[in-house]
Design goal:
Elements lengths: L19 H15 L6 H8 L3 H5 L5 H15 L12 H18 L1 H10 L4 H20 L4 H26 L8 H7 L6 H5 L12 H21 L1
Helix pairs in contact: 1-2, 5-6, 5-8, 6-8, 7-8, 8-11
Keywords: DNA-binding, Transcription, Transcription regulation
Protein name: TetR/AcrR family transcriptional regulator
Length: 231
């Protein structure tokens, strides 16, 4: 239902004529344009062409709205792990790590809600831990102890999450995009001849790029492989 046009010609929906699903869909649309951090209730109301009280009727605070958005993400996005095969555990775990990182990289809102903001939802946390059981079991079958398997998988998970978050933060900050000329002035070939001799000349220092991600990931997998050989 739409109210009659006001003196200024604007039409606004009646309170109660909007649903939770419409509010959440609109919230994701606004967040996609301005980010989760800059999303506001008045801005969302304007986007939906309703009075802000229509939003507060369902969500009294922005935190409540963000909680609902997080639950919707957990429900609709595929957070499942790729099955880890004991016979090819290294390759399958590596593929899993890349898949999860790519999912967070390609979905900034998912990264902001799940990794940066987080959730205290107990059922969601339980579901996440249940999904870890399978890869841990595969690593145990490959020769690791339960603790070694758990530590290996959670280390990979921390790497994926931290890399995705750092890359997300870097993408939101113009200051991290230093031009090549900057590094050419920073790197002194006489004071740091080894770094200056490396292709890239230090441009990747502190960056959450593919090269640094793979280097750390392979180090974790090398350690796990050593556990297998020593068992």
């Amino acid at each position: 239902m739409v109210r009659p046009a006001s003196a200024r010609g604007r039409q606004r929906r009646e309170r109660g004529s909007i649903s939770v699903d419409e509010i959440l869909r609109g919230a994701f649309e606004v967040a996609d344009e301005v980010s989760i951090e800059n999303l506001s209730m008045p801005q969302l109301a304007r986007h939906l062409d309703v009075g802000v009280t229509s939003i507060y009727w369902y969500f009294r605070r922005k935190d409540e709205l963000l909680d609902a958005m997080t639950e919707r993400v957990l429900l609709e996005y595929d957070m499942s792990v790729l099955a880890i095969d004991a016979g090819t555990w290294r390759e399958s775990l590596r593929a899993h790590a890349h898949r999860m990182r790519e999912m967070f990289k390609s979905n900034p809102i998912v990264c902001d809600l799940i990794l940066i903001r987080g959730t205290k939802n107990i059922p969601a946390a339980r579901t996440a831990l249940e999904k870890i059981e399978q890869p841990v079991a595969a690593l145990v079958a490959a020769g690791l102890t339960a603790k070694q398997a758990f530590d290996t998988y959670t280390s990979v998970a921390v790497l994926v999450r931290s890399s995705a978050v750092l890359q997300r933060l870097q993408s939101r900050s113009a200051e991290v995009h230093f031009p090549r000329e900057y590094w050419e002035q920073v790197i002194d070939a006489e004071a740091m001849p080894l770094i200056a001799s490396i292709p890239g000349r230090g441009y990747r220092i502190g960056m959450a790029d593919d090269g640094n991600f793979d280097h750390i990931l392979d180090s974790i997998l090398d350690r796990a492989e050593a556990f297998c050989h020593n068992s």
